[in-house]
C-alpha cells in the first residue's frame, strides 16, 4: 500500500512497519500495531488481531504518539 511520509509518498513494506501505526480495515475497524513476532512476519494489534503487513488491504491513518517512537511519528504522521 502507498502511504504519505514527510519525504513524500512511498510503498509501505513490512520492514517499514512500526509499533504505534494505526490502520482501518475493510470493515472500518481501527487497530494499532503493538508488537512484531520474532520471525518478522506477524504484527499483533491492540484488538488482539494478527496481521501480515504485506497482505493488509487497509488504510493507514497515522501513528499513535503514545506508542510510536518520536521519529516514526515525525516520518509517518
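Sequence proposed for the structure above (77 residues):
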Amino acid at each position: 500500500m502507498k502511504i504519505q511520509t514527510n519525504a513524500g509518498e512511498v510503498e509501505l513494506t513490512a520492514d517499514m512497519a512500526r509499533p504505534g501505526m494505526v490502520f482501518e480495515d475493510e470493515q472500518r475497524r481501527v487497530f494499532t500495531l503493538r508488537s512484531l513476532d520474532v520471525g518478522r512476519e506477524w504484527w499483533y494489534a491492540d484488538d488482539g488481531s494478527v496481521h501480515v503487513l504485506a497482505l493488509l488491504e487497509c488504510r493507514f491513518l497515522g501513528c499513535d504518539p503514545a506508542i510510536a517512537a518520536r521519529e516514526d511519528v515525525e516520518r509517518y504522521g
